[in-house]
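The data are quoted verbatim here:
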Amino acid sequence: MNTKTVAIFVAVFALSTMLAFVSASESEATRNQYDFYLLAVEWTGSVCRVKDCSYNKEQSKTRFNLHGLWPSKDAKRHGPQECTHEALDYDHLPNELRDELEEYWNGLYHPTEQFLEHEWSKHGTCWSPQMKDIRGHGHSVVARLLSESRRRKGGRHHSHNNNNHNSEHSSEENKILESEPLTPASDADRKVYNEFSEPQLDENLSAREKYFKQVLSIAKYYDVYAMLAQEGVFPSTERSYSTDQIREALGRSMGIRDVVIRCEHFDGDLFLKEVRICLSLEYKPMNCPASVIRENNCHGPVLYPASLA
């Protein structure tokens, strides 16, 4: 084999190796892309009846606890997961941020540090603040879903056919709610939760800090307790709600139709356990795709109990 042939062979081999590397890198980047977010929040009044929430110092009476913000794909039940091996290193998060996480994103029946390590490694490592730019504001999946959301917005009918739905709350419930209104908000006072503005995060923050601060701001804005309350749906130990009442109250508050309601059976009753809201890459409410809607598991009267604390 002469020198020229060897040189050609080496060049071809090098080019093949480079193309294979580029192809693998593009494939990995594609795998880590996603179409929307799934915001999941859980009601401690139900969760802590089923499980021993010994790691929660004090359950909020007027706030859902964060479960997570999950990058998700339209055509799959689950989005990308565990995209990097970057550790959380919880102890090195600022004290102020850890206090806020303990309050809003509590482990409940697990140590909060352990719970957040799981959420970070599984979902947070896949979160990218640039994903909306990578995917494009009008990419086909989200554009279609948002368009569908707008078409459905005006055509909802609100059912109130629950025999246990009373116009007044029990004295125990009044004490829990304190100054909360006991009737649905008027149209003038009703807030529509569809104008979330992303916080300006310091560029010098670590990816972990940016993720947790962003998710906290999203969860605070999409206040599920407040959405339900303004539609007259309050925690109660004496009455139940239909799944439609809960779903439509949330839908009306966000201008969408499809949210996911997750329940759990306990002592013969069905308890509201978790609410999941689909958000676009710009963190705007959108109707969930069929792959997510299938996770609805509430059928029949649902208990939305007051917090145990």
DSSP finds eleven helices and six strands in the chain.
